[in-house]
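Batch job 17 of 40 flagged for manual review because the log was empty.
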Amino acid sequence: MFGGTVRGRTATLRVPADADLAAHQRWAADMRVRRAGPIGRWHEPAATTTWKERWTEQAKDRTSVLWSIGAGDALVGYARIRFEGAPLAEVLLLDQFVIDPDHARKGYGFDAALALHRWAFDFMHLRMSVTDRIAADDVGRQRILEKLGYVRFGHGHAVYYRDGAYVDQYLYQLDREVWSERWPDEREYPPLGDETMR
């Protein structure tokens, strides 16, 4: 399915629009994006017709949510999460998180990630954790995850092959308790009564 509006301070997660397809095509062909992994069809170059088919499937998929990431009037990336063990999912996988390389180092990535996690833990009331798997040399994404409070819990050796060599993979996890302690003021809505009763 497509996600609704989740506002950060500088970036906004919003419903994807047909006008965003051209940017998705461009990112899928951009080696700066492709080499960051994880590998999957969202990182495979394709014709406009194929992208429209992917989006039609995504709109029907109840096990995942796709957002475009905007900053002002600009489209700066996209995020896609997947519910693990749906329909009784208590764990989310941060399946895709892409910031346009031309908009990198402007703080949009962290702000969008913070808003996304606020949505997951506070609006969706996720009880367990969010997990992510990234290429070991994706330093930018590592910094975002660690700033949010993620802990690395796994290390896959020689998972990705690119540029003539194998690259390791790191597995990260952010538990609800850590989120609540680290970001107590990040609320999607005001608390209602005793939350321990939920």
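Reviewer: the log was empty due to a logging misconfiguration, but the result itself is present. The chain has one domain: 6-188. Unflagging and moving on to job 18.
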